[in-house]
Write a structure and sequence with these properties.
Layout lengths: L1 E4 L5 E3 L5 E3 L5 E11 L2 E11 L3 E8 L9 E8 L4 E8 L5 E5 L4 E6 L3 E11 L2 E11 L6 E4 L6 E6 L11 E6 L5 E6 H8 L6 E5 L6 E8 L9 E7 L1
Antiparallel strand pairs: 1-4, 2-3, 4-5, 6-7, 7-10, 8-11, 9-10, 11-12, 13-14, 14-17, 15-16, 15-18, 18-19
């Protein structure tokens, strides 16, 4: 019987069939045994995984990468990992959620535009390994700008389309990160009806009296505008 390794730089195999890993090699190797006899030769092959697990590909399967939509993250792995777990390791992690399916895939969700680092931890009988990817979430539907951010005294909201009342949102609500009741509410159309457009396409409201922390500006469009509500995270410091 004769044994052959498809990658002798990673795995060697003796004539007796004892396989040995070379150094810190990680990857897949095919071992071939050739049995010779009076009736001819019989060739047998066995694909084995050597070393710690490794992810050969990470894909993000989603129609877009917009805030408020779920992103499916899928890793293709080698090395027969027995434990796999995704986690959010950078970016605005407190405002993101991740449902791990324990098979190399996970569902990522965030309402906060940012770039998030996702780390996949894997283990097998040879040890542990990590890999990862980055996903950048955009505010795809934004038609308004909120600044400064962070803010101290005033928050200004500037509208992309303020040429007519019909183009403006109806209301703005400011929510604390720990409350479902708005701490500020403004009727946009009432403001512009009273003052007109002579002051430009923006409004400002005072936040100096509010506790410092994370808040969310909810911009509510008109019912027949065809636009989607916007949610923008701001920090008061």
């Amino acid at each position: 019987m004769a044994w052959v390794s498809s990658n002798a730089a990673g795995v060697t195999i003796s004539n007796g069939g004892a396989a040995a890993r070379v150094g810190n090699f990680h990857g897949n190797v095919t071992l071939t045994a050739t049995v010779s006899g009076g009736c001819g030769k019989l060739v047998l092959t066995k694909a084995i995984s050597v070393g710690k697990p490794v992810a050969t590909n990470i894909a993000i399967n989603a129609p877009d990468k917009c805030a408020g939509t779920s992103q499916l993250v899928v890793a293709t792995m080698k090395g027969n990992p027995t434990n796999m777990k995704w986690s959010v390791t950078s970016g605005n992690a407190p405002n993101a959620s991740l449902s791990d399916f324990a098979n190399g895939s996970a569902s990522f969700f965030s309402i906060t535009p940012d770039c998030y680092g996702l780390t996949l931890s894997m283990t097998n009988t040879c040890g542990a390994a990590t890999t990862g990817t980055t996903i950048c979430i955009d505010n795809c539907f934004a038609g308004s700008k909120v600044y400064p951010n962070p803010a101290k005294d005033l928050v200004t909201i500037e509208f992309e389309h303020a040429e007519s009342l019909h183009a403006l949102p109806e209301q703005i609500h400011l929510y604390s990160g720990h409350s479902t009741v708005p701490v500020r509410s403004v009727s946009i159309r009432e403001v512009f009806e009273n003052r007109g457009f002579q002051d430009g396409d923006k409004i400002a409201f005072r936040v100096s009296d509010l506790p410092r922390g994370i808040y969310y500006v909810h911009i509510i469009p008109g019912k027949n505008s065809g636009q989607k509500p916007e949610q923008i995270r701001i920090v008061l410091e």
